[in-house]
Amino acid sequence: RRLSLSENHIEQLVTLWLQKLFLYQKPVQAPRATVNITNLLHTTSGNLAFTANIELKLSGAFLNGLTMEESLPEMVDDFVLNALNATANMSLVARSTSLTIESYDTCHPETEENFYGAINWPEAFAGTMVSKRCPIELLGHLREFAARKCVYQSQAPSTLLVAAWSDSDFSSCPSPITRDLQALAMIMLNSSDVGSIIETSAKISNLTKIASLISPTDVRYAAKALENTVLIISSGDVLNDTSEKENADSVLQAVDNILRVPANMIGPVPASRMSQAMETLVRSLHAAEGGSIHAASDNVAFLVSCPGELRAQTVLAQRVKGKLTLQATSRRGNVEGSTTITFHMPIEAATRAMTGRDNNNAACPFPQQQYIVYNSPSFFADPSVNNETTITEVISAQAGPVSVQNLSTPVEITFSVEKQNYTDGFTFNYTCVYWDYDEGDGIGGWKTEGCKLVNTTKEGRAVCHCDHLTNFAVLVSQRLIQSEEETTVAREALSIVTYIGCGISMAGLAATVLVIVRVKYGS
């Protein structure tokens, strides 16, 4: 009991003494003391000996007003002893008194190191917002700043508000990822330096592998770097078969990484660059006669096929063990099982491609057929499509290096879509669309010309016919359906309103005629 009382007395008396001593400073909060009494002993002479460890929380104004900092510990020591002697009516001896003085409204200088680099935050008073230059600077960009605020926070278990640094805001700061992607986007690649080309693609893939660390600026630089890499490859026979596949896998993985980023962070220009880079990449690949080149990931897959003859071809997009895959087959059928899209390319499309065929792949006597499937429509965000409309997986189809249009025998694409659900009063509208890169000032947009919906099923299938080759999808929107009885009632109500409206119109017309006759011929 005596120990507990002693601690309380010391804390109260020291606090009151400091309040009186610096009362003219008018502090926001009174000084607070945290006291720890140790080595409490009863001496042989009847005195009480102890060690006092006192931690004072003072305002910055108090600290600035102290002119006797060196003697303050002794003053506190003497005051505690004298005050408690008078209060407890006994002799007390403090063998050791340690005093720690801190400001409760000042944040201490601090060095912070994180993903963005290191920043030295200076001393600051509570309520102050401090800005410091970001650790990393990008070429050609204005210098950005990180921000941190010194705020009051409650210090449990007491109610004392103490200044402390809040979480830092590095949202405007470039990260090491941004710096490295900018460097890759600015590299002038040479078609003769195969090693640099493959290394650049691999670095882009590695830098973008953690979606949560990717910013919109990172996406822009990654898209530009991939575009540069793919354009160099497509300029001629730069890579052999082994390095060609290795590079394609890296590009595919980088695209897959970006598709994991939220769609609103990608932006229309990088999205267009990414999708066109993928198309350029698959056009540059060389499949052997009767063979194919295939690569798959969680969000994107491609297939380059060289048919052994000039014929129609069907491709199945499937999800196997979580990954998208594309498989060519001679069987023409509907979507079933794990298949999400079937694409049937008529022989006319291959024949049209023959007329514009170049010698890009001497090993393939017929036009290569190239397919890409995207699990997410993030690269095909059209601002004219409302938020209530969903978009299916997107499939891209090309035959050779030329644009194939105005087919008399259309391509047929069967999509797996939302199942019809009549029980809750809603059904779905399906619209077959293709992506036009020239829409929206070159950003791209969905269009319907040349595509039409030919069949839908309650099982969730939508069949589209289109007269050209490009990127295809189905837009799915909900609409309210009415029962036959509701439709009849609505029709009857509309008829009544129509009759009333016609009657009012006829009456108005008759009144108008009577007024004209009266005015012209008198009563």
Largest sheet entry: 8 strands, antiparallel
Task: Report the β-strand fraction as a percent range.
Answer: 25-35%
Tell the overall outline. flat
Amino- and carboxy-terminal Cα gap: 117 Å
Tally of strands: 24
C-alpha Rg (nearest Å): 39 Å
Account of the 3D structure:
The chain is an alpha+beta fold and 523 residues long. Helices cover 33% and strands 30% of the residues. The strands form 6 sheets. Strands 11, 12, 16, 17, 18, 20, 21 and 24 form an 8-stranded antiparallel sheet that branches. Strands 14-13-15-19-23-22 form a 6-stranded antiparallel sheet. Helix 6 packs parallel to helix 8 (268-284) and helix 7 runs antiparallel to helix 8 (268-284). 33% of the residues are buried.
Short account of what is shown:
The strands form six sheets. Strands 11, 12, 16, 17, 18, 20, 21 and 24 form an eight-stranded antiparallel sheet that branches. A six-stranded antiparallel sheet has the order 14-13-15-19-23-22. It has a three-stranded mixed sheet with strand order 1-2-3. α4 (176-185) packs antiparallel against α5, α4 runs parallel beside α6 and α5 packs parallel to α7 (241-259).
What's the SSE blueprint?
Blueprint (H helix, E strand, L loop, with lengths): L1 H20 L10 E11 L5 E11 L1 H6 L6 H17 L3 E12 L2 E2 L2 E5 L2 E5 L2 E2 L3 E5 L11 E10 L6 E5 L10 H10 L8 H14 L8 H19 L6 H19 L8 H17 L7 E5 L3 E6 L7 E8 L2 E7 L9 E7 L1 H9 L13 E6 L15 E2 L2 E6 L11 E6 L9 E11 L2 H4 L2 E3 L3 E7 L3 E6 L4 E10 L3 H38 L2
Parallel strand pairs: 2-3
Antiparallel strand pairs: 1-2, 4-7, 5-6, 8-9, 9-10, 11-12, 12-16, 13-14, 13-15, 15-19, 16-18, 17-24, 18-24, 19-23, 20-21, 20-24, 22-23
